[in-house]
Amino acid sequence: MAHINLLPWRAAALKAQQKEYFTILAAVGLLTLALVLVINFYYQAHIDGQNSKNQYLKNEIAQLDIQIDEIKTLNAKKLALQKRINVVEQLQRSRNVGTQVLDEIAKIIPNGIYIIELEKQGNTLQLTGKSESNNHLANMIRAVELSDLFVDATPESITADDGSPKLLSSFKMKVKIKGLDDAKKGSK
């Protein structure tokens, strides 16, 4: 006898098809979720690795900053020590300068010139005095230029004294001391 199926086979086929569809959909969803999690873990591992590298670099930079600060303080101490050494060397070089200056002034001042005041500021001497004539003053300037200790004689003023019994001219002159001038150039 022929089998007649009275059951709604189309509804059963539709249910089976829907069940298969939802199973495939769930599998694709789970697979997608797993793929997203794997990609997330992969990139999170890269981010964590980069963060650890960044932290390592920050720690190394902090140590180098500490070393740089130490170097700066050492350089400051070195400069202060160098300044002290330069002062001691300059004092050593210039300890006999006063005697040498007075000795050299006695040699270069010709007859007819009288020094009233002698003032030393750094490496410059300010000479104030009186002269019987401008020729004597010119001879003194030439003697300064030929001197081993002095250089750069520059007269600042020459004025005639009308009230004095002798006709004397007052003068002011600046002279630089070579030894002290060279010491300052050497320390720069």
TrEMBL record:
The chain crosses the membrane at residues 21-43. Residues 54-91 form a coiled coil. Keywords: Coiled coil, Membrane, Transmembrane, Transmembrane helix. GO terms for biological process: type IV pilus assembly; type IV pilus-dependent motility. The keyword Ribosomal protein does not apply. InterPro entries: Extracell_DNA_Util/SecSys_Comp, PilN. This is Type IV pilus biogenesis protein PilN. The gene is pilN.
